[in-house]
């Protein structure tokens, strides 16, 4: 029956057009959200309030529906909130961590507040092969293991798992780990500055237990940093596995084309 | 009734001890998972198969239950899979992106395969203020907007939103954007090498639409890179907002203590 076919075809056509429009608007919302999120994160709204939807629409030459959808994306990320009678306000507390220079957390966030560390565990463990190789100690030799929940101004920021060779670790155990970066303590103990660190960054979803510890929703995005830090003389002294709450940290740096 | 009180107290005590044991095992599982994940990602299992649970338990001096829980964490991340009769196998395809030198995607992943780009959108748009300021063009001036889904060996890797000043953009529109990095095209068009880029990295959860485009689960962790690239003469020529699938990319580099 040709009529049915035509109707089917028309129906499909309509669906395709509608789907295309939805896709287009979703693309435009993402595009706008990326521009707004930068403004939000870099202090582009000094009084903490975003312009009205209509004003954003005019500034970015886009429809009010797209503006609403873009603000919805930023809300889902926890960057902004909508307050009745006030409008859309910035609620993010996202701190910049430098990618240009090797620094401890308290050092790099100095101007943003006070870092405190809850030591969840600290004591010797037998180094498994992947730890022993990187710290250049015999497999099975004791190394110091430290697990810390790190807070900035009282808010959970990261969960750090740290391995240190025991000759340095013993001195660390008596130190003020609650209030001092391990980097600073290592430099004080060895009497020499740190040299360099190899780092690897990944984005992962927080497992249930890590999320609980970080007081973040289960499955929330975590910036995972693995870092092997060496003294100035080249000796590897600090292997860390760090989970940063994705909604509380950005990493910034500068790359050059030629080395 | 004192008996009831004692029973309650004993009950609570038991709960606390059980909760403590669960927490301890979860902490140990995370600690083990972080060591195994490194092995998985750096080719520590050349034949793609992890040792038996009992062997891992012996190597890492931990219980079989902890090993199982750690492997469960890696499975949830999509790094390993359990095959009946075979054991635990590596299924991750996670590629290393350099953080030390400014490189295009095809360049940095050259040894891992072929990068192809699906151009979802390419055309002039009026530059909103945050784009205009960074590219140093007048607000409202046309810039080239390009949206690409980038694949490595056919698998979606990243979704890139790119803004280019129109004097360079016009030449780009006629180029082979499907198979060539924008970086390479910019160097060819301008006849000068790129200089440096300011980058910011974040971990975010993919919104529904971005997840669909990247063929990733909704809410999956995304490594978000914002990058403003300058020519060697200092002119900013390329503003990008890039969403990398968290399960397909790692970023590695070297940090120094003194600059």
TrEMBL record, chains A, B:
Keywords: DNA-binding, Transcription, Transcription regulation. The lineage of its organism: Bacteria, Bacillati, Actinomycetota, Actinomycetes, Kitasatosporales. It comes from Streptomyces tauricus. This is GntR family transcriptional regulator. The keyword NADP does not apply. Residues 26-93 form the HTH gntR-type domain. InterPro entries: Bact_HTH_transcr_reg (IPR050679), Chorismate_lyase_/UTRA_dom_sf (IPR028978), Tscrpt_reg_HTH_GntR (IPR000524), UTRA (IPR011663), WH-like_DNA-bd_sf (IPR036388), WH_DNA-bd_sf (IPR036390). SMART domains: HTH_GNTR, UTRA. It comes from the Bacteria. SUPFAM superfamilies: Chorismate lyase-like, Winged helix' DNA-binding domain. The keyword Transcription regulation applies.
